[in-house]
Amino acid sequence: MIKELPLVSIVAINYNNSKYIIETLDSIANQTYENIELIIVDDCSTDNSVEKIDHWLLNFYKSYQFIKHSINQGVCKTINDGYKKAKGKYITSIATDDIMLLDKIQKQVELLEKTGEEVGMLYSDAYLIGENNEPMEGMFIKKYGYIKDIPPSGDLYKILLKGNFIPAMSILIKKTVFKDIGYFDENLYYEDYDMWLRIAKKYQIIYSEFPSVKYRIREKGLALSTEKEIWNYNNLLIYFKHKDMELGFCKIKEITYSSFLDNQKSIKKLIKKHMPNFKLINTIWGIYFLPHKIKIKLYTILDNLKK
After folding, report:
1. How confident is the model at residue 223 (pLDDT cuts 50, 70, 90)?
2. Which InterPro entries match (predicted)?
3. Which residues have a Cβ under 8 Å from the Cβ of 216 and sit 6 or more positions away?
4. Range of weakest confidence among 23-27, 86-90, 103-107, 240-244
5. Structural domains for the chain
6. What average pLDDT does the segment 224-245 reach?
7. What angle do CA 240, 234, 25 make, to 5 degrees?
8. Is 142 exposed, middle or buried (CB count within 10 Å of its CB: 0-12, 13-18, 19+)?
């Protein structure tokens, strides 16, 4: 008797990716693994990507849902809307400018089917491509993470506290995990790192040696200073959840000091609210009549005296 293949839900999240959307969807439709459902969530795109998706779906003959937001709600709400509709035993997601390799789902399901309840998620490395599909040097994990050797498997919580290295588009997660720990935190700007930490706290995460996706590197629209402040703000919200861990607390101190040097005012308010015990930096940062360069010098002097 042939064993029925478990259903895999693929959530494709879209916002203004008209240029790349069809290539992403084709990479899903052409998967060698047959038993999939596709859930597309558009976060109120202003380009013609919704029209392109509607037209593409006319020739897609597997199970699908297309959710269209009437207002922009951000990546965490968008991905939650897709994951909550998923019926599969396993769930994965992809932004609509990245590309799945044709046997991604098949190879990852084969690996997860051999695991026990202690394993909650699988990840792999990713190839890098440019805006016009040109191959880029290196691989995702070494370029964007701090892992320089073979990526780890098993209990990854403490390893992940040092920094995120898991390519979000490469993962496959057991649906039962979300029943246990909940969905993505919609108070955050981006979805993945917090979820990996929450999964790693309760489950093992395994690494697949098969690179399963192509990650597209695009020119950033935000000014670098603005982007850095947003990432610092988001990471602090994540590390506040783990400040009882020594590594989590160290990360908070590291980001706080970096944000103080750059005078990131949104971080100043956050630290004052959540870390009132950082008295020295809170006090000096709050002296409104001093130029910021003088504040940095004053903090350096007083901090050295404390030591």
Report:
1. very low
2. Glyco_trans_2-like, Nucleotide-diphossugar_trans
3. 20, 97, 98, 99, 129, 130, 131
4. 240-244
5. 8-216 (3.90.550.10), 224-306 (no CATH)
6. 87
7. 130
8. middle
